[in-house]
From TrEMBL:
EC number: 2.8.2.-
Chief place of localization: Golgi
Pfam entry (one): Sulfotransfer_1
Family: Belongs to the sulfotransferase 1 family.
Disulfide bonds: 532-544
Transmembrane segments: none
Organism domain of life: Eukaryota
Cell location: Golgi apparatus membrane
Residue ranges of every copy of the Sulfotransferase domain listed in the record: 334-574
Positions bound to 3'-phosphoadenylyl sulfate: 343-347, 424, 432, 549-553
UniProt source species: Oryctolagus cuniculus (Rabbit)
Cellular component, GO, one term: Golgi membrane
This protein's name: Sulfotransferase
Amino acid sequence: MHVHIGIYTHSYTHTHALHIMYVCACMCAHVHMRVCTRTCVCAHVHVCIHACAQIHTYMHAYTHSPPSSRGGSRYADRVSAWRLVPAALCPQGPPRPRKKQAPPVSEPGPTPAFSAPQISQAHVPPITGHQRWATVHRGSRGASKRLSGALQTGLPVPAPLLHPPDISVVQKLQGIESTFIARFEMEALSERFSPEQWHEPSAPDPMTTRAGRALAALLLSQPQPPPPPVRRKLALLFAMLCVWLYMFLYSCAGSCAAAPGLLLGSGSRAAHAPPAALATAADGTPPRLPFRAPPATLLANEGAASQEEQGPEAPDSPSPISSFFSGSGSKQLPQAIIIGVKKGGTRALLEFLRVHPDVRAVGAEPHFFDRSYDKGLAWYRDLMPRTLDGQITMEKTPSYFVTREAPARISAMSKDTKLIVVVRDPVTRAISDYTQTLSKRPDIPSFESLTFKNRSAGLIDTSWSAIQIGIYAKHLEHWLRHFPLRQLLFVSGERLIRDPAGELGRVQDFLGLKRIITDKHFYFNKTKGFPCLKKPEGSPKPHCLGKTKGRPHPDIDSEALRRLRDFYRPFNRKFYQMTGHDFGWD
Ligand SMILES: Nc1ncnc2c1ncn2[C@@H]1O[C@H](COP(=O)(O)OS(=O)(=O)O)[C@@H](OP(=O)(O)O)[C@H]1O
């Protein structure tokens, strides 16, 4: 176990006006556990406690149109108010006002004393001749929505703060911690400044600046709010410990599911991996994923050239649990890539695989080996999620399969890269491809007219990418020049829909993963017409792929379909031969 203590700062801007900087101290503990029986399983937990102080800076710029010579000029004004607010823990925010400190809202009375900057909302009424400012306090300790605020009546509001930009800023910042403007009004201005000090019609800007400085000084002179009681600190500490324990047990459950060795002493994937699989990558990065030899019954298939519509089914954001671990582990080049084919079912496969605790994948398609190769492997690796020992990094870009340069490039990265190709009947694949294009450009010609160079002669236009991608045998030849067949797995797109668990079983074997994903993970959604996940990665709720997957296809002329099937038949046969698997498309 390592413990470290550090100090850091971070800051953000709520709007253009309010900037908050945190000065934080953190204490982190990193626990690394290794449990070995017949095999070894590692678990890492990283937990930090942060204590922060906030520094608020409020600034704005506005256009002011003073009378006479200054008309139309633009002035920048800056009102800065600095205040240090001791906070218990960052997520907790600063301490809330005590219940008894908030006078009832219905009883206008004297300006309440401010004990802490916890006013969560500022209500700025429309400006009339005689101003009223109301501040709504959020009740403390569970009575969060209760109004227990104070109403200040009859207070003259200084002109600079009434300037429309000021008001709009205040309104914009409602609900944030900007209510110190109202605070100025309520407690500071009424006591320290006479309204006359704030009015100078001929030269309002210097006055505003002076006022800002005065307000800043006023704020700095305010007493610090009292520290939260020890009891609250202990409660927070206890809550942190509970979260830590929960995270630990959760991660343990994941690891244990993936590698029962932790609990049962059976073998993990890493432990069974052959040493040969630990070869060094082209850029010197040692791949950490040891692969098992693929099963003898490989299917065969090829790829596509896709620009997938990114939807919610292609999440890039890590799950809460993933985020928790994001500080641990390291980014690795992918050890396995779904290289194709476009519209084959690649998104479904990747999302299903992500359920596996030993799989970490990029959500979006990186398109590194076809479009961004000149950015270099370091750029590519940086796209990857962090992984721990024994976890596998994956990505999917279906266009790799039909990219001439991709096989050599991937081989140069690592000759051991595992390649997965989801293949689908080339005719329905072409229609699916066309449907996708049609959804973006409804004015394109019909499928039939794009398919044929000469329809009456039945001459197929093989230059059309929707047709070309489906000539799988031709594309596969390029890959086999750089990779042995055993390093490719061909997944049937049709079977992925009919029997996702069966197909996922083959994929997990191929990747050397324990078979964690089974039929228990899927249900068939009748409305969608596809299998969906009961619990996708990072979510307890069932999830189907989005609208861009499983679109209804347009009706295609049966004669055109027949000719297209005739066209693909010899290529399909060749493909079956090359891969040793009959996909049954003919
Ligand atoms: N479970 C599940 N849910 C929804 N859709 C599924 C699923 N499994 C496979 N498919 C089929 O995946 C087809 C889209 O393929 P890809 O994800 O490879 O498309 S893309 O190349 O990434 O754009 C998509 O093609 P279309 O039906 O033509 O839209 C689906 O048929």
